[in-house]
């Protein structure tokens, strides 16, 4: 698609866009890249690049995670969550004081009803149609530690932390926890998770 280089630069101004790509999401011939200096989109059909930053609608230029649901790109950042309509071109931002349990959105997963967000001490489910939030913390059964990642597959939300893996069964709101001492995990510190 594109050739790797030491950094990605804006062709018109030669301004360095980023030297780090932190997450990728691919949909309908478009490659979305989360960077430490905004959001990049590469259109594989047109061969064109777009660069989105805070001044164009992002909640922050420091992006840590991406998710795609239909015609919407969900962007997790250090100051909250941005939603971008790929057809409408409209932005909506969500901040910690109004909706999120923590300002830093570390991972995003999708299911039929909405999106799941991992923040340092909680996991939240957001249903866009109703604009409703449900947050799960240690008190709800999350299992402790600092949340680092998640994946949503079928009825389960798999959550990685520095204290192993927690699995939420969405159908009955029950939790199961996996730790290195009892489950066969090599270590309790989980930095990425993907369930096939």
Cα-based radius of gyration, to the nearest Å: 17 Å
The amount of beta strand, in percent, is: over 45%
Order of helices and strands: EEEEEEEEEEEEEEEEEEH
**Overall residue-averaged pLDDT value:** 88
Cα distance spanning the termini: 26 Å
Count of strand segments: 18
The largest sheet has its strands arranged as 3-4-5-6
Based on CA inertia axes, which overall geometry fits? globular
In the predicted model, the low-confidence regions spanning at least 5 consecutive residues are 1-7
Structural class: mainly beta
Number of helices: 1
Structure description:
There is one protein chain. By secondary structure, the protein is mainly β. The N terminus is likely disordered.
What labels describe this entry?
196 residues, mainly beta, four-stranded antiparallel sheet, 1 helix, 50% strand, globular, disordered N terminus
Task: Describe the secondary-structure layout.
Layout: E1 8-9, E2 16-18, E3 21-27, E4 30-35, E5 38-43, E6 48-52, E7 63-69, E8 72-77, E9 80-85, E10 91-94, E11 105-110, E12 115-119, E13 122-127, E14 132-136, E15 147-153, E16 156-161, E17 164-169, E18 174-178, H1 180-183
Antiparallel strand pairs: 1-2, 3-4, 4-5, 5-6, 7-8, 8-9, 9-10, 11-12, 12-13, 13-14, 15-16, 16-17, 17-18
